[in-house]
Amino acid sequence: MRHSASAFGFAFDATLDVMSSAIVLWRYSNAAAVHSAHREYIACVILGVVFILSSLCIMGKAIHDLATKMPPQVDDFLYSVSIVSGLSCAVLSVAKFILGKKLTSRALITDGFNSLVGAVMGFSILISAEVFKQHPDVWFLDGTIGVLIGLIILAYGVKLLKDMVPLVRQTRNYERFE
Fold it and tell me: Mind listing the pLDDT tens digit of every residue in the chain (178 residues)?
């Protein structure tokens, strides 16, 4: 689907998912720091900033598509990619949530949330494309979903920063890393 706010958001979220997974890998990369609260909080702050920036890009594209009344152009290849990616992201999010709970890692749970958003975006592409095929007058559904997903990511990013910045400040003098 070319000119699709959901497809753009999905692609952007895939990039965000790679970045958030890299941040979680950094969080656990030092064996001595596995139980480091400070490192956990820093990872969450970085994730919060990345979520806010990505939400602004996703919402910007979606609002642009809505303002210019850009209808999505359906591409059959995107259907299969959306299904595979949506299912993969759903499975990854469940695994990350389970691991995050067991390790009591907010960073890993946040990464799971990001994968869940990827699954929702993958399936929303399918839904908006099918609705558009049947009812072309509902061209705005794709952009509207993009705005809603952008707002959800923005809210989660702001909440992460609100919760974690004070904790980073509290723990910065307690732990020193090489």
Answer: 456 666 676 677 778 778 888 888 887 777 666 667 888 899 899 999 999 998 998 899 889 889 998 877 667 777 788 888 889 999 999 999 999 999 888 989 999 998 998 899 888 888 888 888 899 898 899 889 989 999 999 999 999 999 999 999 888 776 554 4
pTM: 0.82
CA distance 14 to 30: 26
Question: Residue 1 carries which DSSP code?
Answer: -
- For residue 74, count CB atoms less than 10 angstroms from its CB and return exposed for 0-12, middle for 13-18, buried for 19 or more: middle
Of 54, 56, 42, 63, the C-alpha closest to 17 is 54
The answer to the question of residue 178 being in a domain is no
- Residue 176 within any structural domain of the chain: no
Task: Specify the amino acid at residue 178.
Answer: E
**Sequence-distant (≥ 6) Cβ neighbours of residue 173 within 8 angstroms:** none
Is residue 44 in a domain? yes
Number of domains the chain is built from: 1
173: tokens are 């003098």
Residues 6+ positions from 138 with CB-CB distance below 8 Å: 131, 132
